[in-house]
């Protein structure tokens, strides 16, 4: 085996970052991203791309913190370089506010973001309904820039992009040595993974260039995330709802909830609606599996189920998936070529 052929299924933030990581790290390999949809048509395109961790019930806090720290440090370096504008990664400061005192006043990620502190009395005066708040600086990935930038980086490393819908992983057996399953919600039908569930999110993208500070209600339902050319207003979390059409009544409700936190949004203009289905699961699935059918073998790395926090942890989980790929590549190279693993 001269050059290892590696297929990454999925071209959201998870598939593209995994492809980039593999092409940076795994020697003598060729990476192909295979997906039925590419940017701007994935769930990842709808996301605000804020680095504020979501909590995964089935993953240790230690591991979640590690993924978040690796992602934050990686993107902080990009935001601090001449590539920042092209990649669409920038720092953003703001507030997370609570109507009731949260059980954890200091979240596990407090020392990863920058300048984390409790909000002062005078800051809280802006929010008469809220009793407590956290102020910090974090990072934001602008999907319309970040996803094309990841694609460009993968291609610069020799990677290929192929538009194709995969019905069954075995279709890839004849052309690829290793397959990485980054199909997001697609993995529910494809793997029969019944733990996967869509959590529908509707948002507005508005023009309000005077809004520079993010505001997030601690319950995660209402948020105002300013980006480089839009402000994202959210949101909803509708479990099990597959409807991708925007609901005008929900849009009115989002705008009124956001205006209640930031009155100046009454003057927002050029309001566009967007919907995405979060690929949710009690924990991200990061696992090697050797598929066997008769005498055929296909090594797979599963990497999906990032739910509400894909941007926040994607580089950390891509590093871990790449480690699994390296282990498989090593086994393939050192095993008897006739048995193919
Ligand atoms: C409204 C909203 C706001 C969000 N805001 C944030 C945020 O601020 N911060 C944050 O961290 N996260 C946020 N998220 C979550 C984030 O969007 C997801 O965690 C992330 O996008 C998941 O990435 P993914 O690559 O796994 O999935 P996707 O982006 O859905 O990509 C899956 C890819 O697989 C392909 N695919 C699927 N099935 C097949 C198949 N059978 N054959 C070929 N290709 C296939 C698809 O075409 C697609 O390219 C938000 C989500 C929503 C909906
Ligand atoms: C930010 O950039 C400066 C100048 O290039 C460099 O000295 C510094 O180490 C960088 N810091 C980080 C966190 O990337
Ligand atoms: C993901 O892996 C499963 C095996 O668990 C497989 O059945 C499915 O086809 C894979 N999905 C994709 C998109 O490759
Ligand atoms: C902002 O919204 C406009 C449409 O109003 C869109 O063309 C543009 O790509 C958006 N930019 C970002 C960074 O989301």
From TrEMBL:
GO CC terms of this entry: cytosol; peroxisomal matrix
The record's InterPro entries line, in alphabetical order, gives: D-amino_acid_oxidase_CS, DAO, FAD-dep_OxRdtase
Name the reaction it catalyses: D-glutamate + O2 + H2O = 2-oxoglutarate + H2O2 + NH4(+); D-aspartate + O2 + H2O = oxaloacetate + H2O2 + NH4(+)
Residues annotated as binding D-dopa are 223, 278
Record's subcellular location: Cytoplasm, Cytosol; Peroxisome matrix
Residues annotated as domain FAD dependent oxidoreductase: 6-323
| Entry's EC annotation | 1.4.3.1
Q: Name one GO biological process term.
A: D-amino acid catabolic process
Q: What class of enzyme is it?
A: oxidoreductase
Q: Which cofactor does it need?
A: FAD
PROSITE patterns for the chain? DAO (PS00677)
- UniProt entry tagged with the keyword Cytoplasm: yes
Q: Which UniProt keywords apply?
A: Cytoplasm, FAD, Flavoprotein, Oxidoreductase, Peroxisome
Q: What does this protein do?
A: Selectively catalyzes the oxidative deamination of acidic amino acids. Suppresses the level of D-aspartate in the brain, an amino acid that can act as an agonist for glutamate receptors. Protects the organism from the toxicity of D-amino acids. May also function in the intestine.
Query: What is this protein called in UniProt?
Result: D-aspartate oxidase
């Amino acid at each position: 085996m001269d050059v290892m052929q590696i297929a990454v299924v999925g071209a959201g933030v998870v598939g593209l970052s995994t492809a980039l990581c593999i092409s940076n790290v795994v020697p003598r390999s060729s990476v192909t991203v295979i997906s039925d949809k590419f940017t701007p048509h994935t769930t990842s395109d709808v996301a605000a791309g804020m680095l504020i961790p979501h909590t995964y019930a089935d993953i240790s806090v230690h591991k979640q913190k590690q993924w978040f720290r690796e992602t934050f440090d990686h993107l902080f370096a990009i935001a601090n370089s001449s590539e920042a504008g092209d990649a669409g990664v920038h720092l953003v400061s703001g507030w997370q506010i609570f109507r009731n005192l949260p059980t954890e006043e200091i979240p596990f990620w407090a020392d990863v973001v920058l300048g984390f502190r409790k909000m002062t009395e005078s800051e809280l005066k802006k929010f008469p309904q809220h009793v407590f708040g956290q102020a910090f600086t974090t990072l934001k990935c602008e999907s319309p820039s970040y996803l094309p930038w990841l694609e460009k980086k993968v291609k610069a490393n020799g990677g290929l992009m192929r538009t194709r819908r995969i019905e069954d992983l075995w279709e890839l057996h004849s052309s690829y040595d290793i397959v990485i399953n980054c199909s997001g919600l697609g993995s529910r039908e494809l793997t029969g993974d019944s733990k996967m569930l869509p959590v529908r999110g509707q948002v507005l993208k508005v023009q309000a260039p005077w809004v520079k500070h993010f505001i997030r209600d601690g319950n995660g339902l209402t948020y105002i995330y300013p980006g480089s050319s839009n402000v994202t207003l959210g949101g909803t979390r509708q479990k099990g709802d597959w409807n991708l059409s925007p609901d005008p009544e929900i849009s009115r409700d989002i705008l009124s909830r956001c205006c209640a936190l930031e009155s100046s949004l009454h003057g927002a203009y050029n309001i566009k609606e967007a919907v995405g289905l979060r690929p949710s699961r009690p924990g991200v699935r990061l696992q090697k599996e050797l598929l066997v059918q008769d005498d055929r073998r296909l090594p797979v790395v599963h990497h999906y189920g990032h739910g509400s926090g894909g941007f926040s942890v994607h580089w950390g989980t891509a590093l871990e998936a790449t480690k699994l790929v390296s282990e498989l590549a090593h086994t393939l190279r050192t095993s008897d070529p006739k048995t193919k693993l």
